[in-house]
Design brief:
heterodimer, A: alpha+beta, five-stranded antiparallel β-sheet, 5 strands, B: about 650 residues
Chain lengths: ~70, ~650
């Protein structure tokens, strides 16, 4: 299951981030790494989503969300 | 970092020779710049980092232990730079720019500690910093963190990291004294480590020792994980719905977010035009009044008075007349940025500009440009990436400001009076096409490195912007405009005055010469043939276009002056439109409408006003400003020729 399909308000754990290069590194630096607990909090334009990592809120476009594999805890 | 490529420290700047160098490093929105403003007050200036267009603020921090040279590096998530701004931050932190900091203050946001620890982990890795650089952590946002259930405090984090950690409130300045103690080595660190923490001997080695020196990022992440494990729940708040979340629930929906953004943009445009017009006019009148007051007092021949009043004072007046506008726009931008709203704008408008390799924040300066190009250029600083800033800064002058509107109306009324409104609407549409087309062309050629990546953007919580830091930001940036853009404006106006004052034909005294017989007239006569392919081989038009480089508002006045008639009071048919129509009939060989439309396109696209060029120079350097002005001139000439040549065939 990927982050784009996770219903808003539901918690999940990141299993794999299939994003290479600088963008993948930036995601990791922002905390979106395997093992991180995430919760999509908002849906935005064009399929973008806001994801909560603790008190952090990170906006991701639909394509990036689709490349973050998650598992339900 | 110690000097700019444009401006060396000197009188008026705040560099303190021999003072310890302290660099502030931290994530964007961690409170770093607010902390810098609180520490330095008015003793600061903005410079470009050497060889870059990235702005860096430097200032003097007066502490109880003596003066400190404080450097506010751009915000970054990582020392592995992914943009020119981040490269500047990394170089400032590591001393790779030639100035090794004595102390590196890592500003960590307590609400997003895991993110800040990644940067701290990279900083602490062996070999990253110079041997004599000490590291101090300034922990911000503690109040907000406590409200979110984070019980972490500075002594606990200090105990866990083995580093000096000081809690500070950047807005009020609370904790700055303790930070100064820590920075200058006199800190008495709390020995009141939390009872819940293991003692020194039992603490995990990974916490007591820095992360391994390695290019392998997971090593740093592992170290961060260990630190967070030691801190436990104190440092990691559970996800809870915040006020920001509730606001975002509305603002991030396209059908709410876009209209709200439209309203905000309308308010900004209103501020940049209607609201500031009376103040700008007032400053203009004040300068004129002062000039007339001072003129009789200037010794020597009349031309000296002319040079002082109509050259220098007029130039200074032009610079000053922009200050109210810039102060309002700087303030508005600072409020939008500090409040956290701009990040939401990027999310809402992201898709619209993604194809240009930009993110949604580029929309703000481009829309502002229709109000005035100068603050629009300033607004490019809201873009986090220097290359993106430059790309947007190059196309902003293609947005048609209201100053050009008077010229469109004059020309349209002269050649197609019954369709003047259509011509003006077409000019605005052409402007949008030029902005998008220009951005696309630049993106496909000189800016191919601007690869559109996915949207990954940390959204800061909404904040009430601090009055003091906003005022500080306005003062610093206005000062920078006066120093850097102001010199270009004053110099250009003096040159223009000289051209108008020096006779080249006839028996005239200096500063008492008809336009046609002045050096200005000679230049206009010389330039006119270059406009022949656009059907504009007329010295009145050529001269007015040269004057338009000073300010588009004066094109109509310059035409009236060249025809030796009064400037029309409104945009309707007048003696001036008749003269212009007659000139265009002659210069175009009977295709006045095509020539008129070519003139509209030329005014729309050619070299922007000198204030805009000055601001481009301030932001991007002299070379970029000159090349951009010449590039626009070439584009405008080409477009005007195409419009005329095609138009006269129709």
């Amino acid at each position: 299951m990927d982050l784009a399909l996770l219903p808003l308000g539901l918690d999940a754990v990141v299993a794999r981030v299939d994003v290479d290069g600088p963008l993948g590194a930036r995601l990791a630096e922002l905390g979106l790494r395997p093992g991180a607990r995430v919760r999509p909090t908002h849906a935005a334009a064009a399929g973008a989503r806001v994801v909560a990592l603790g008190a952090d809120r990170i906006a991701l476009d639909r394509s990036t969300c689709g490349r973050v594999e998650i598992v339900l805890p | 970092m110690t000097s700019s490529c444009h401006e060396a420290p000197g009188p008026g700047t705040t560099a303190v020779i021999g003072a310890p160098v302290v660099v502030l490093l931290g994530n964007p929105n961690a409170g770093k710049s607010t902390l810098f403003n609180s520490a330095t007050g008015a003793r600061q200036h903005v410079v470009n980092a050497p060889g870059t267009t990235v702005e860096v603020a430097e200032g003097t921090w007066r502490t109880a232990h003596g003066h400190v040279r404080l450097v506010d590096a751009p915000g970054t998530y990582s020392l592995v730079a992914r943009s020119p701004d981040e490269a500047v931050a990394a170089r400032a932190a590591t001393g790779a720019d030639g100035t090794v900091p004595d102390v590196l203050v890592v500003v960590a946001d307590a609400t997003t500690l895991p993110r800040s620890l990644v940067l701290l982990g990279q900083v602490l890795a062996p070999g990253t910093l110079g041997e004599r650089t000490r590291v101090v952590v300034a922990l911000t946002m503690l109040d907000t963190a406590r409200a979110q259930g984070v019980t972490l405090d500075a002594p606990t984090l200090s105990e866990a990291l083995g580093l000096p950690v000081v809690g500070v409130d950047p807005r009020s300045g609370a904790g700055l004294g303790m930070l100064a103690d820590a920075v200058l080595g006199d800190a008495a660190f709390s020995d009141a480590g939390s009872d819940d923490l293991p003692d020194d001997d039992a603490a995990p080695a990974a916490v007591r020792t820095p992360p391994p020196a390695s290019d392998d990022a997971p090593d740093v992440f592992a170290w961060v994980g260990t630190v967070l494990e030691v801190l436990g729940d104190r440092a990691t708040p559970r996800v809870r719905t915040t006020l920001s979340d509730r606001v975002d629930a509305a603002l991030l929906r396209p059908w709410v977010g876009l209209p709200v953004f439209g309203l905000v943009m309308w308010a900004l445009l209103w501020l940049a035009t209607t609201a500031t017009a009376p103040v700008m006019d007032g400053v203009g009148r004040l300068v004129t009044w002062l000039g007339e007051l001072v003129r009789p007092l200037v010794p020597g021949p009349a031309w000296v008075g002319g040079l002082v009043i109509d050259g220098v004072l007029q130039g200074v007046g032009t610079v000053l007349s922009f200050l109210p506008l810039l102060a309002i726009v700087f303030g508005a931008i600072a409020v939008l940025e500090d409040s956290g709203y701009l990040a939401r704008v990027a999310v809402v408008t992201d898709r619209a500009v993604r194809r240009l390799g930009l993110d949604g924040r580029a929309v703000l300066p481009l829309i502002l440009g229709f109000g005035c190009n100068v603050p629009a250029l300033t607004a490019t600083r809201t873009l986090p990436d220097a290359r993106a800033r430059l790309l947007v800064g190059l196309v902003v002058p293609m947005t048609t400001c209201p100053a050009r509107l008077t010229v469109y109306l004059l020309v349209a009324t002269a050649v197609v009076p019954e369709h003047a409104a259509t011509v003006v609407a077409a000019a605005y549409l052409t402007s949008v096409v030029l902005v998008v087309g220009g951005a696309w062309l630049l993106r496909s050629t000189l800016f191919r490195d601007l690869v559109p990546e996915g949207l990954v953007l940390a959204l800061p919580a909404y904040h009430r912007p601090g009055l003091r830091s906003t005022a500080q930001s306005i003062a610093t940036r206005c000062g920078s405009f006066v120093r850097r853009a102001g010199t270009v404006i004053v110099a250009t106006l003096i040159v223009l005055w000289v051209l108008l004052a020096v006779p080249t034909t006839g028996d005239h005294a200096i500063a008492d010469v008809p336009v046609a017989d002045s050096a200005y007239g000679a230049v206009a006569h010389g330039l006119a043939p270059a406009l022949a392919p656009a059907g504009l081989d007329d010295w009145h038009v050529a001269g007015a276009l040269v004057t338009g480089i000073v300010a588009k508002e004066v094109v109509v006045g310059a035409l009236a002056q060249a025809y030796a008639i009064d400037e029309p009071a409104d945009a309707g048919p007048s003696t001036l439109t008749e003269h212009l129509r007659a000139s265009l009939e002659v210069s175009s060989g009977g295709a006045a409408i095509a020539a008129g439309l070519a003139l509209v396109v030329l005014v729309l696209a050619y070299t922007p006003c000198v204030a805009t060029i000055g601001e481009q120079r301030r932001l991007f350097g002299t070379r970029v400003a000159v090349l951009a002005a010449l590039g626009q001139l070439a584009v405008a000439w080409t477009l005007a020729v195409v419009v005329f040549q095609v138009g006269r065939l129709l």
